[in-house]
Inverse folding.
């Protein structure tokens, strides 16, 4: 199965107008011109900077993603929230959903991740759905159980909605073991491959074709020095990059490692 790799930069809560301008210009001058890239490239700045960057990225053929979205699809009395249609309106193409930092610090639930996925798909955004286990869960041998539970919630939400399981064709899944995020401790390519194959297998058990075509990204301390090895695994279709996406040179090198 030929799947186009994707490299997504999650800036988390970093940036300023000045810093973003120089980071984006470094990224755009470093990646191959649109049409000649071997990978899709997406950057996810904080909400307040999305509109600033939309036109430039659109012209360069680089995707623009938000880092979260409201479960409610329309407008309404949800102070502090941003809806999927609003993200679309300012030029977003993608949205990260269920990042482990949202799950850990902002009480994001599996069910909420399912609802956000539906909201994003309804607004024609590509959800980047994050799953991953804590260190104590891995140590207790619960990796598949945790990742399976997180993913099942999304599959169930899709199946219960008119969108259906085929909505997964428009999603990207990201496996981010929590113990590897920002710690410098990367999963080995074999550890990543094991879980990626599990994720693909779980989807394939529902629908073989969708399971074969869905992109599954690895995230957690991906750097220029380890990206090629990780992306070389058969079920690793690119990366969700935190720290290294804040340095144009590193992010560009990681994009190049998909080749
Ligand atoms: P790091 O690349 O900094 O480990 O972060 C990974 C991540 O959480 C991306 O969403």
């Amino acid at each position: 199965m030929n799947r186009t790799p994707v490299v997504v930069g999650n800036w988390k809560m970093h940036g300023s107008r000045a810093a973003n301008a120089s980071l984006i210009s470094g990224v755009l001058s470093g990646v191959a011109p649109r049409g000649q890239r071997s990978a899709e490239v997406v950057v996810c700045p904080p909400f307040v900077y999305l509109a600033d960057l939309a036109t430039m990225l659109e012209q360069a053929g680089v995707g623009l993603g938000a880092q979260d979205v409201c479960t409610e699809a329309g407008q309404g009395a949800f102070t502090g929230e941003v809806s999927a249609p609003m993200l679309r309106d300012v030029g977003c193409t993608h949205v990260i959903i269920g990042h482990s930092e949202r799950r850990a610090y902002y009480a994001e639930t599996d069910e909420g991740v399912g609802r956000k996925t539906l909201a994003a798909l309804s607004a024609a955004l590509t959800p980047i759905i994050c799953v991953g286990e804590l260190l104590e869960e891995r140590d207790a041998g619960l990796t598949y159980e945790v990742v399976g539970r997180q993913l099942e919630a999304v599959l169930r939400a899709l199946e219960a909605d008119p969108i259906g399981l085929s909505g997964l064709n428009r999603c990207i899944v990201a496996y981010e073991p929590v113990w590897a995020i920002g710690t410098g401790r990367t999963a080995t390519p074999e550890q990543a491959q094991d879980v990626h194959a599990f994720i693909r297998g779980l989807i394939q058990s529902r629908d073989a074709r969708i399971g074969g075509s869905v992109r599954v990204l690895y995230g957690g301390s991906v750097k220029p020095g380890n990206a090629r090895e990780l992306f070389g695994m058969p079920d690793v279709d690119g990366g969700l990059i935190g720290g290294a996406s804040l340095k144009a040179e590193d992010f560009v090198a990681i994009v190049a490692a998909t080749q």
